Amino acid sequence: MNKTWIHFFNLADYEEEEQWLREKHNDGWKLVKFLPPCFYTFESCTPEDVIYRVDYKNSRQTADYMQMVQDFGWEFFTQCVGWLYFRKPAADVDTEADGELFSDGESRVEMVQRIARTRLIPLTIIFFSCIIPNLMNAINGVMGVYSYIFTDFFGVMFIIYVYMIIYNGIKLTKIRNRYRS
């Protein structure tokens, strides 16, 4: 039996996503696929404590990388827009390091930098090149009789983008600093 949950995570919320997926598996639902922006499809399973980890590559994975991850006991089961999803039964974890996909803080910092470079920076570029100019055009009445509708739409988009840029920027910086120390 499959079930789909709608749950939204920001770019910087990947650790919370991992925990949420673990809780779902503990409740008898294992993730089988993810469709952006927020559709998680689960399959009914025997409740089990399973550790979920995500990695962000935004590029094609090499066979060596996937083999290395498998050698450490991780099951790769899906990917979506650059995010790779892995899981491992908690019973197979003997040490804290066994429960981590990354072997050191530097690898985690590199992932955070990839997220910022390939997701947060484009989000900011879209904000400055599309949202702000269109909001200004709508406010100035350039969009004709429907300017008030466009003003509302782009005003809401402005608020959403400002929130996402600030929230993700601050959180990714905190995560990066935590792994650097």
Q: Give the fraction of residues assigned to helices.
A: 40-55%
Spatial shape:
elongated
Radius of gyration: 20 Å
Distance between the ends? 44 Å
Helix count, DSSP H or I runs of 4 or more residues: 4
Which series of helices and strands comes N to C? Answer: EHEEEHEEHH
Q: Give the percentage of residues in beta strands.
A: 15-25%
Structural class by secondary-structure content: alpha+beta
Work out the oligomeric state of the chains in this entry: single chain
Which whole number gives the mean pLDDT?
A: 91
How is the biggest beta sheet arranged?
Answer: 3 strands, antiparallel
Domain tally? 2
Please provide a written account of the structure.
This protein has 181 residues and is α+β, with helices and mostly antiparallel strands. It has two domains: 2-99, no CATH class; 105-179. The chain has helices at 14-26, 63-71, 105-139, 147-180, and strands at 2-6, 29-35, 39-44, 50-56, 75-80, 83-89. A three-stranded antiparallel β-sheet has the order 1-3-2. Strands 4-6-5 form a three-stranded antiparallel β-sheet.
